[in-house]
Design goal:
Number of domains: 3
Oligomer: single chain
Shape: globular
Strand order of the largest sheet: 2-3-4-1-5
């Protein structure tokens, strides 16, 4: 089953149309985290296009000789070669340079697709790979009707592939593939409303986890059933992601685990990630956090949003599936491996409600931003939705809508998020009003109030400007 990805398929299909119309080649560098569905998307594109194609996946740790041998075998078995008699029995001795020239020589005269999956592993094997690719692209491939798709899960290395100081700079369009959105997760699981939100938080919108979800099964029921299976994707996918990103138990991994354990601020992360010698030093932690947010994009950093700059920044694990694993599912998995699925599920239930209340915040903010883009909010000037807090975290305002970030010129609304089993009531509203007054830029006469609640609102008419529930969050996303 293939769910969603309509916009991504449309973008890639436009590239095929260009290749068909002009007879010249195009290259696209497609990057995204593991299990986000890059390979599945590209395979769907190849199947729908009806064009001859070659799909080659690199093997981590293989030698140049092994990789070119595997590539030649994939090329021979594909429907791509114009004349199979031109293919040798063994790969050329010149490595990837000669192998890519051979590829160019056997391409058909009609449009075709060439997919190189896990390109970072090819650059690990041969640090001249992108140089060879650039030469062959410029001289041969770009003059043929071929769409070249370069895929990779190592986000930093894929960014480097097309960076200005690298040989392939300016030769490939870039496309970043994120997880499925909330509406797509709802469609994949057959759930609606708060159940769909729960499923999205648990799976992180990762297709490899979502497509194992029995249709219409509520979150707690599914987790209970999976607790009996130590090989469940709920456990294995984030575990493998962590192992591939951080194969060694170094400081970077300890920092990610600390953030996953709800250490959000710089000082608490430094303490939680410390070892026998004490907390991690500022000189070590600062560049690590930049690397983990900017390069690897494992972490996300949130700044307080208002008309003045504020501190501190708060960090979170960007992928909610990995975030849940570090906070809860890793301990559940350990119990499952020991043959204690009931104890594992009890542990999950004890921690789930509290974890969910915090983890849903970035999803709600993203949904409100999507609503602003679609014109579904009363404040069309809204460009960004964040939160606000001071150094004492008293108060901490869940939702702030503004015209820009991180320092706005206008605060359009402030809001509160209540993701519990009880409605948002007058006491909650009083706390929101008192807290919102402290947000720099809040205007009692002009700034709106928004409530997002899992269980509705028990408020008099007109008490706030907008009340959103789970169905509203799901419905704002394109399906």
């Amino acid at each position: 089953m293939f769910i969603g990805r309509r916009s991504e398929l449309s973008l890639l299909t436009k590239r095929i149309d260009h290749v068909t119309r002009t007879g010249s080649g195009l290259a696209v560098a497609l990057r995204g985290r593991r299990q986000v569905g890059k390979s599945r998307l590209v395979q769907e594109l190849c199947d729908r296009s009806g064009l001859p194609y070659l799909y080659f996946t690199a093997v981590k740790g293989a030698s140049i000789s092994e990789s070119t041998t595997q590539f030649l075998a994939a090329l021979t078995e594909s429907d791509l070669p114009n004349d199979r008699a031109l293919l040798p029995a063994v790969p050329p001795a010149g490595g990837w340079g000669d192998m890519l020239r051979l590829l160019a020589g056997v391409l058909p005269d009609r449009p075709s697709v060439v997919v190189l999956d896990e390109v970072p592993w090819l650059t690990e094997q041969d640090d001249t790979f992108d140089g060879h690719l650039q030469v062959v692209w410029d001289r041969l491939l770009s003059h043929r009707p071929v769409l070249l798709l370069l895929l990779g899960s190592d986000l930093h290395m894929m960014q480097r592939l097309t960076a200005y100081d690298r040989p392939f700079y300016g030769r490939a369009d870039t496309l970043v593939l994120g997880p499925l959105n909330l509406a797509e997760s709802a469609a994949a699981t057959g759930l609606t409303g708060s159940d769909a939100v729960d499923a999205h938080l648990i799976t992180g919108g990762l297709p490899g986890v979502l497509l194992r979800w029995p249709t219409g099964t509520p979150a707690e029921t599914h987790v209970r059933d999976e607790c009996a299976d130590p090989s469940s994707p709920l456990f294995v996918v984030p575990e493998q992601s962590l192992a591939s990103e951080f194969p060694n138990p170094d400081v970077a991994r300890r920092v990610v685990e600390a953030v996953g354990g709800d250490a959000r601020a710089f000082t608490t992360i430094a303490s939680a990630a410390g070892g026998r010698d004490g907390q991690v030093s500022s000189g070590t932690l600062s560049p690590l956090l930049r690397q983990l947010t900017d390069d690897k994009q494992v972490l996300a950093s949130d700044q307080p949003l208002s008309i003045s700059s504020g501190k501190p920044a708060l960090y979170r694990v960007a992928d909610s599936n990995l975030r849940l694993y570090l906070a809860i599912l890793r301990d559940v998995h350990n119990l499952t491996r020991r043959g204690r699925p009931d104890a594992g599920f009890s542990l999950f239930r004890n921690r789930w409600i509290s974890w969910r209340g915090r983890a849903v915040e970035p999803l709600v903010r993203a949904s409100l931003e999507e609503a602003a883009i679609a014109g579904s909010l009363p404040w069309p000037e809204t460009q960004v939705v964040g939160g606000w807090w001071n150094r004492q975290f008293n108060p901490e305002i869940n939702l702030v809508g503004a015209d820009r970030a991180p320092v706005a010129t206008r605060i359009l609304f402030c809001g509160s998020l209540k993701w519990l089993g009880t409605p948002f009531d007058a006491h909650d509203l009083q706390r929101l009003r008192e807290g919102a007054r402290q947000v720099p830029g809040f205007d009692p006469a002009g700034t709106g109030l928004v409530v997002v609640s899992r269980s509705g609102a028990d408020l008099p008419p007109g008490a706030v400007d907008a009340v959103w529930g789970p169905d509203d969050l799901v419905g704002v996303w394109p399906g």
